Amino acid sequence: MIFDPRPEAAAFWRRVGEAEPFPRQLRRAATRTLSLAVIHLPRLSIREAQGWLARHGVEDAFPAADRDLRGCLVAHRGHGFIFLDGAMDPDEERVTLAHEVAHFIRHYERPRLMAVRKLGPEVTAALDGNRPLAASERVAGILRDVPLGPYRHALGRDEVGRPDEYTLTLEAEADLLGYELLAPSRRVASSSVPGQDCRELLEVAYGFPQESALAWARWIDARRTTDRFLDRLQLAAKKN
Fold first, then answer.
1. What is the dihedral angle through the alpha carbons of 88, 94, 95, 99, rounded to the nearest 10 degrees?
2. How far apart are CA 85 and CA 232, in angstroms?
3. Distance in angstroms (rounded) separating the CA atoms of residues 235 and 155
4. φ and ψ at 81, to 5 degrees?
5. Which spans in 2-123 are helix H?
6. What does the pLDDT read at residue 53?
7. Are 29 and 97 spatial neighbours (Cβ–Cβ below 8 Å)?
8. What are the residues whose beta carbons fall under 8 Å from the beta carbon of 197, sequence distance 6 or more?
9. In terms of pLDDT, which residue wins out, 34 or 118?
10. CB-hemisphere CA count at 13 Å for 19?
């Protein structure tokens, strides 16, 4: 099934309680609503983030080879740390922060809350690595379609720097949800002419860098076509 980020983004802003004006900065809304901290480092790399975490009592957060990063998320015992490279310009930082917030919402908080709701709060001890999952929890997780296990970061690469399929899926979902948090697709679509490129609108009104504006404009245009098709199907079903 193709991931639609709109329901999760709308749910986040309902939790915030008020919609942030555009271009959205997101940091205040995310850190006040989610169990998140945002840390800027002058030059972000896996080694630098690992060092910061070690100094603050979080060990072995990155079982991955060192490389430079624009942003990354570490989720630990119900809390998240988002690291950002301090050398980014404001537009790149805005989109990078939204991407990492999306990782936290969709890939850490959502499955964790689902596990607690369906299996009970005692499962958090296993999710946090304090004990192994019991056999009964594993069976219940399979039967109830609950993802179990610790959060797996999306930093892994093979020997030539390529991500695996799991990582590609996580990154694509985080891109879409992050873009939707910053520039709601229905709002953008309603402010632009169908078939007309909305990249300039995304850059000027929503603070998107060019590459991200192109990617989001393409998704919005494709989604607008899909939504029209689904609307016609629903109308035909009602008539029948």
1. 110
2. 46
3. 44
4. -120, 120
5. 6-16, 27-33, 46-55, 90-102, 110-119
6. 87
7. no
8. 217
9. 34
10. 12
User: Which residue's entry shows tokens 């504006």?
Assistant: 213
pTM, whole model, 2 decimals?
0.85
Q: Distance between CA 198 and CA 220 in Å, rounded?
A: 9
Closest CA to 153 of 167, 164, 163: 167
pLDDT computed for residue 195 by the predictor: 54
Q: What is the DSSP string of 100-155?
A: HHHIIIIIIIHHHHHHHHHH-GGGHHHHTTSSPPPHHHHHHHHHTT---S----S-
Mean confidence (pLDDT) of the chain: 83
Quick: pLDDT tens for 140-188. Answer: 666 566 665 555 566 666 565 676 788 888 899 999 999 999 999 999 9
How far is Cα of residue 106 from the mean position of the Cα atoms in its chain?
6
- In 102-137, which positions are buried (b, 16+ CB within 10 angstroms) versus exposed (e)? bbbbbbbbebbebbeeebeeebeebbeeeeebeeeb
Q: Residues 39, 84: contact at Cβ < 8 Å?
A: yes
Residue 236 has pLDDT above 90, yes or no: no
Who has greater pLDDT, 7 or 66? 7
